Structure formats: C-alpha cells, structure tokens
Amino acid sequence: MGARPVGLRAAAPSGRRESCPDPTPSGGRESCPDPTPAGGRESWRYVDCGAVDAFENAAQLPVLIRSMVERNQPLVMTSIWGATHLNVGWFDDVDSTLDLDACRRLGVQVVRRQLYGGGTAFYDKGCSVMWTFLVPREGHGDLDGELARFQPVVLGVLSRLGLGEVGFEGSSDLRVNGRKLGALAAQDVMVCMSIGGFLNVAPPDVDLYLQVARVPDEKFKDKVVKDLREYLFTAEQVRGRPLGYEEFREAFRAALVEAGIDAVEEPLGEEERRGVAKIASKLSGEDRVRRVSSERFVAAAPPESLVGFANFKGRKLCRAGVAIDPAGMIVKAMLAGDMHVSPPDVIDRAAAALVGARVGRPVLPDSRPGRITVEGPRVEASERILGGLPPEVVEDLRCRLAGVFEAPDVNQAEVAMGITTADLLAAVVGAVLAAAGASND
Question: Smallest Cα–Cα separation from 265: which of 7, 31, 47, 4?
C-alpha cells in the first residue's frame, strides 16, 4: 500500500455494511439535504489559520473542536500548508506508505492525524489550501447527508476561482478530465462532525516524494512517476494563472454567504493558542507516528508464528496482518487502511476480535493471485480469496469482525466512502493465505 501524494485516493464500489446473518450488501441513502437551512441564515465562527506546518494543523483541530462544542456554534477554518510534510491517516500503516529514515534525512516532517482517517498524503509547502467545517452532532449524524450539504459550497468556491469545470467523482474526489485536484471527506470525531477538504494550487515536488514514499517494486518506479504527474493536477494548471491563499480565502467566504452561512471571523484566543502549542509539542514522537506499524507488528509477533499481510481495495483500502501459531490459531492481528470511520478505536477492536480464531494450516488454491505475499500486495478477486479457506473458518472470521464493525456506535459516510465487513474480511483472509505462503517458501 504505497503513499498517495496530495490525496491520491481512488475509489471502487463495495456496498454497505452487512449484518452477520446476511452478507449481501444493500443499497445506500438517497436523501440530500438543502445546503441552506429552512429556518434562515446561520451564524458560524470563522478561523483563518493561514500558513501552518503539519504539527500546528493537527493540534489546531482538537482545540477548535473543543471550542465549537463548548459554544455549540458551528465553525469553519481555512489554511495553507506552510511546510513540506507527509500526513499519515489515523488508521494507516506508516511502514507500508513511507520511509521514515529517508524523511529524517531529507528534513520532511511526518505527522499522524489525530482521529482523522484517510491515506498518507504528501503535501509540499504552499501547494495546497485546506478547509474544515465543524458542526454539532445533534441534527448532523448522517455523514453522507453532510457531504451532500457542503459539496455545493465547495463547487461555489471553485466557480468563483475560475474552476467551474472541476466536479466531484469517486469517493468525493475533486477531478477534471479524470485528474485530481483535491477532495472532500466527512468523519464523525465523537463530539462533532467534521467535513474537510483540500485543493492543490501548485505542483508538488514529485521527485522528493519518490525519495520518501514506499514504491512496491523498483522496476515500476518510472511508471509511477509518469502516472503520478499525469494524475495530479492543480488549480494553476486548470485556470492558467497562479492561485494564492488570499484569493482562495475570499472566494471561500463569498461561497459561504451564498449558502446562507454568515461566517464571523474570530482568530484563535490566547488560551486556544496555548492549547495548540501544548498539543503540537507531543505530536512528533515516534510512538505516535508508529501507532499503526507493520514493522512493529512483525517484531512483536511470537517467534514461532507465521506472519502475513494483504490489502483489499473497496471504496477505501483495507490492510490486514495476522500472526498464526503452529496450532493454526491467530495469536496477533492488525487492521489498517485509508478509511474514514468512527469511533477511532473501532479498527483496533476489530483486529483484537480476530485473536483466538482457528484458521488451521490453510492450503493455498492453485488459482490464487500470485501477488499475495507476506509483503501484502493488493487483493483484487475477493471471491477467489475467500475460497482459499474452509467456509466455516471464513464465517467465523466474518462474524468476529461484524460483532465489532457493525455495532450501533460505528459511523461513516457509507455511500460515499464507507468500508464494509466484507472488505475487512477479504484483507484478513488474504493475510492468512499470505502466512500460509510463507510456510511454503
């Protein structure tokens, strides 16, 4: 699972979550609320954060979320990246997406987002602008609805900037002619709902990215460069002239007014600034960055166990790792990926539920995709993968995952970017088969 610079997050249909008795996906929501409230105009707090580095940005969100909840007033913030860095999603496996030693050597900051999912993205200084809408949980629990509410606001911003041809595609990516300029994502962050996005305004240093990112196979590096430069696009390229932060900010505020939102500017207060500084000082530690780490997983696995990893791509990418003891039991498991799901511990709890499952000494089918190895390439044929284990083993794994992932407290934008129990299951079974392959090497 390689790092995706500036939000390379493709999507494919995968359906909604299914209950344990019925694995068949069902349809999604159809309601799309009006972006302008029926009761009239809304009063929001607006915070212009300006140029921020990775640690400032990650620290500002929890501080502003707390302030928003205490006031019970919606909040919107804008900013631009002020330092080159790699931004790791809360659930992402840091070792499968980037080279931490290379980052240190080249002076590239690395931060793991607090609670926020999504993939690992490379952001170059001054190359991307960002925005976040924070709304109370009450009355805003439908994340697909919140995306539908704020997408027209974002399109209004783009229209004012001469980017009217840009539209939403896939899992809420902003694209033109198939090339990506940005994205908008929604996540339940426990005390409120967060709807945030970014827009590429200038080309990043792709050569620097390739020095710090994990590229699966050296012989494909030239192809990655070519594809990456063709896929990524910027506002400057679309409209033929540079786009500065000030111009973006004014267009953003004008679009808010049109959407019925009166954004009253109020900078960070003294207490808020102290809170940001305190949190930022704690975000660069190795333990936080390696919160999800396949290298640490392997190092902590029992010495007699077989370890395997595999990835499965639905709407978002799911990665699994398992350690299997000589008796055929899962003794350690990890789940990771670029999903946006709440609560923030649900993926860890789903992995813990796999411990104790008896998978036996699995036999790899002759028709297995050759890409499934201990290193965990992407699984694409889920039906064939599931057929590699006895049905009763697959059912036990599925119910263990569903017991956690389909609980009432789990929330995500299912229609736009949701993952399912079946997605997680395909990655887990792939990892079991990868471990079996290790035993045959």
Answer: 47
User: Whole-angstrom Cα distance, residue 437 to residue 282?
Assistant: 40
**Does 64 share its domain with 114?**
yes
* Domain region containing 209: 42-289
| Among candidate residues 235, 259, 289, the one where a domain is terminated | 289
Dist. CA 441–CA 439, nearest whole Å = 6
Three-class secondary structure of residue 136 per DSSP? strand
CA angle 217, 220, 226 (to 5 degrees): 140
- Confirm whether 274 is domain-assigned: yes
From first to last of the 441 residues of the chain, give the pLDDT tens digit. 444 333 333 233 333 333 343 333 333 333 333 444 445 799 999 999 999 999 999 899 999 999 999 999 999 999 999 999 998 999 999 999 899 999 999 999 999 987 777 888 889 999 999 999 999 988 777 888 999 999 999 999 999 999 999 999 876 899 998 888 999 999 888 789 999 999 999 999 989 998 998 854 333 344 444 566 676 789 999 999 999 999 999 999 999 999 999 999 999 999 999 999 999 888 877 888 899 999 999 999 998 889 999 998 888 889 999 999 989 999 999 999 989 898 989 999 999 999 999 998 654 444 443 323 344 444 444 455 666 788 999 999 999 999 999 999 998 887 777 899 999 999 999 999 988 875 444
Strand, coil or helix: what is 412?
Answer: coil
Residues 313 and 232 in one domain: no
Q: Is 403 a domain residue?
A: yes
334: nearest Cα among 368, 310, 363: 310
How far apart CA 38 and CA 47 sit, in angstroms, is: 25
Q: What is the 3-state secondary structure (H, E, C) of 227-264?
A: HHHHHECCHHHHHCCCCCHHHHHHHHHHHHHHCCEEEE
